[in-house]
Amino acid sequence: MKAKLIAVGERAPAWVAEGFAEYRKRLSHWLPLDLVEVEPGLRGKGRDTVRAMSDEGARVLAAIPRDALVIALDGRGRLHSSEDLAQRLEHWRMQGRDLAFLIGGPEGHAPDVLARADERWSLGPLTLPHMLVRLVLAEQVYRAAAMLANHPYHRA
Protein backbone atom coordinates (compact mmCIF):
# COMPACT_ATOMS: atom_id res chain seq x y z
CA MET A 1 0.00 0.00 0.00
CA LYS A 2 1.16 3.51 -0.88
CA ALA A 3 -0.25 6.91 -0.05
CA LYS A 4 -0.36 10.27 -1.78
CA LEU A 5 -1.01 13.59 -0.16
CA ILE A 6 -2.65 15.74 -2.83
CA ALA A 7 -2.58 19.34 -1.65
CA VAL A 8 -3.74 22.57 -3.22
CA GLY A 9 -0.91 25.05 -2.99
CA GLU A 10 2.66 25.24 -4.11
CA ARG A 11 6.03 26.17 -2.64
CA ALA A 12 5.69 25.29 1.01
CA PRO A 13 7.88 27.26 3.42
CA ALA A 14 11.19 25.54 4.13
CA TRP A 15 10.16 24.51 7.66
CA VAL A 16 7.05 22.74 6.32
CA ALA A 17 8.97 21.06 3.51
CA GLU A 18 11.69 19.89 5.92
CA GLY A 19 9.16 18.58 8.46
CA PHE A 20 7.16 16.79 5.79
CA ALA A 21 10.35 15.27 4.36
CA GLU A 22 11.33 13.99 7.81
CA TYR A 23 8.01 12.19 8.36
CA ARG A 24 7.99 10.95 4.77
CA LYS A 25 11.41 9.40 5.39
CA ARG A 26 10.28 7.84 8.68
CA LEU A 27 7.18 6.41 6.99
CA SER A 28 9.02 5.04 3.96
CA HIS A 29 9.23 1.41 5.10
CA TRP A 30 5.68 1.28 6.54
CA LEU A 31 3.69 3.43 4.13
CA PRO A 32 5.40 5.31 1.29
CA LEU A 33 3.90 8.83 1.22
CA ASP A 34 4.30 11.11 -1.79
CA LEU A 35 3.29 14.74 -2.04
CA VAL A 36 1.48 16.04 -5.11
CA GLU A 37 1.09 19.81 -5.15
CA VAL A 38 -1.83 21.14 -7.17
CA GLU A 39 -1.92 24.65 -8.57
CA PRO A 40 -4.51 26.78 -6.77
CA GLY A 41 -7.35 28.41 -8.66
CA LEU A 42 -6.95 32.09 -9.48
CA ARG A 43 -8.28 34.35 -6.73
CA GLY A 44 -8.33 38.05 -6.16
CA LYS A 45 -10.27 41.17 -6.94
CA GLY A 46 -12.76 40.59 -9.72
CA ARG A 47 -12.17 36.83 -9.74
CA ASP A 48 -14.85 34.21 -9.24
CA THR A 49 -14.09 32.17 -6.09
CA VAL A 50 -16.48 29.38 -7.11
CA ARG A 51 -14.63 29.09 -10.44
CA ALA A 52 -11.28 28.99 -8.62
CA MET A 53 -12.51 26.14 -6.39
CA SER A 54 -13.90 24.28 -9.38
CA ASP A 55 -10.64 24.62 -11.32
CA GLU A 56 -8.48 23.41 -8.45
CA GLY A 57 -11.00 20.65 -7.72
CA ALA A 58 -10.63 19.36 -11.27
CA ARG A 59 -6.85 19.28 -10.82
CA VAL A 60 -7.18 17.45 -7.49
CA LEU A 61 -9.49 14.84 -9.03
CA ALA A 62 -7.08 14.33 -11.93
CA ALA A 63 -4.23 13.68 -9.46
CA ILE A 64 -6.03 10.90 -7.55
CA PRO A 65 -4.56 7.50 -8.41
CA ARG A 66 -6.94 5.04 -10.01
CA ASP A 67 -8.78 2.87 -7.47
CA ALA A 68 -7.34 4.78 -4.50
CA LEU A 69 -9.27 5.12 -1.28
CA VAL A 70 -9.82 8.88 -0.95
CA ILE A 71 -9.75 10.67 2.40
CA ALA A 72 -10.60 14.38 2.18
CA LEU A 73 -9.47 16.58 5.03
CA ASP A 74 -12.52 18.64 5.81
CA GLY A 75 -13.50 20.71 8.84
CA ARG A 76 -16.91 19.00 8.81
CA GLY A 77 -15.36 15.54 8.63
CA ARG A 78 -15.07 12.89 11.29
CA LEU A 79 -12.74 13.45 14.23
CA HIS A 80 -10.28 10.67 15.06
CA SER A 81 -7.98 10.17 18.00
CA SER A 82 -4.51 8.88 17.18
CA GLU A 83 -5.64 5.42 18.30
CA ASP A 84 -8.71 5.65 16.05
CA LEU A 85 -6.53 6.67 13.14
CA ALA A 86 -4.27 3.65 13.72
CA GLN A 87 -7.36 1.41 13.55
CA ARG A 88 -8.48 3.17 10.33
CA LEU A 89 -5.01 2.67 8.84
CA GLU A 90 -5.15 -1.04 9.66
CA HIS A 91 -8.63 -1.22 8.08
CA TRP A 92 -7.34 0.54 4.96
CA ARG A 93 -4.40 -1.87 4.76
CA MET A 94 -6.82 -4.81 4.86
CA GLN A 95 -8.62 -3.33 1.86
CA GLY A 96 -5.35 -3.43 -0.07
CA ARG A 97 -5.92 -0.14 -1.85
CA ASP A 98 -3.62 2.82 -2.16
CA LEU A 99 -4.60 5.95 -0.22
CA ALA A 100 -5.08 9.53 -1.34
CA PHE A 101 -5.30 12.23 1.32
CA LEU A 102 -6.69 15.52 -0.02
CA ILE A 103 -6.09 19.04 1.30
CA GLY A 104 -8.19 21.72 -0.38
CA GLY A 105 -7.64 25.39 -1.04
CA PRO A 106 -8.56 28.45 1.06
CA GLU A 107 -12.30 27.80 0.80
CA GLY A 108 -11.99 24.05 1.21
CA HIS A 109 -12.80 21.37 -1.34
CA ALA A 110 -14.97 21.73 -4.42
CA PRO A 111 -18.26 19.80 -4.19
CA ASP A 112 -17.04 17.29 -6.82
CA VAL A 113 -14.00 16.48 -4.68
CA LEU A 114 -16.11 15.89 -1.58
CA ALA A 115 -18.46 13.69 -3.62
CA ARG A 116 -15.47 11.58 -4.72
CA ALA A 117 -14.14 11.15 -1.17
CA ASP A 118 -14.68 7.79 0.49
CA GLU A 119 -14.13 9.39 3.90
CA ARG A 120 -13.83 12.87 5.37
CA TRP A 121 -11.40 13.49 8.19
CA SER A 122 -11.28 16.56 10.42
CA LEU A 123 -8.18 17.51 12.37
CA GLY A 124 -10.39 19.35 14.85
CA PRO A 125 -12.27 22.59 15.24
CA LEU A 126 -9.22 24.84 14.86
CA THR A 127 -8.56 26.55 11.55
CA LEU A 128 -5.03 25.62 10.52
CA PRO A 129 -2.90 27.06 7.71
CA HIS A 130 -3.09 24.62 4.83
CA MET A 131 0.68 24.24 4.67
CA LEU A 132 0.73 23.27 8.35
CA VAL A 133 -1.98 20.67 7.68
CA ARG A 134 0.50 18.84 5.42
CA LEU A 135 2.88 18.48 8.31
CA VAL A 136 0.20 17.52 10.86
CA LEU A 137 -1.21 14.90 8.49
CA ALA A 138 2.22 13.37 7.83
CA GLU A 139 2.98 13.23 11.56
CA GLN A 140 -0.36 11.65 12.44
CA VAL A 141 -0.08 9.03 9.70
CA TYR A 142 3.43 8.27 10.94
CA ARG A 143 2.14 8.01 14.51
CA ALA A 144 -0.62 5.60 13.41
CA ALA A 145 1.85 3.44 11.47
CA ALA A 146 4.27 3.44 14.42
CA MET A 147 1.48 2.33 16.75
CA LEU A 148 0.63 -0.57 14.43
CA ALA A 149 4.29 -1.58 14.38
CA ASN A 150 4.56 -1.39 18.19
CA HIS A 151 7.18 1.32 17.82
CA PRO A 152 7.70 3.43 20.97
CA TYR A 153 7.07 6.76 19.17
CA HIS A 154 3.51 6.99 20.52
CA ARG A 155 3.16 7.13 24.25
CA ALA A 156 -0.34 7.76 25.57
Describe the protein's architecture and organization.
- By secondary structure, the chain is α/β, with parallel strands linked by helices.
- 44% of the residues lie in helices and 21% in strands.
- It has helices at 14-27, 49-63, 82-95, 111-116, 130-148, and strands at residues 3-8, 33-38, 69-79, 99-103, 119-122.
- It has a five-stranded parallel β-sheet.
- β1 (3-8), α1 (14-27) and β2 (33-38) form a beta-alpha-beta unit.
- α1 runs parallel beside α5 (130-148) and α3 packs across α5 (130-148).
- The longest helix has 19 residues, at 130-148.
- The radius of gyration is 15 Å and the shape is globular.
- Average pLDDT rating: 91
- Unreliable stretches: none
Helix content: 40-55%
Order of helices and strands: EHEHEHEHEH
Number of helices: 5
Rg (C-alpha, Å): 15 Å
Number of strands: 5
Shape: globular
Largest sheet: 5 strands, parallel
Secondary-structure-based class equals: alpha/beta
Span between termini? 27 Å
Proportion of residues in β-strands: 15-25%
Strand order, largest beta sheet: 2-1-4-3-5
Question: What key phrases describe this protein's structure?
Answer:
about 160 residues; alpha/beta; globular; 5 helices
Question: What topology does this entry show?
Answer:
Elements: E1 3-8, H1 14-27, E2 33-38, H2 49-63, E3 69-79, H3 82-95, E4 99-103, H4 111-116, E5 119-122, H5 130-148
Parallel strand pairs: 1-2, 1-4, 3-4, 3-5
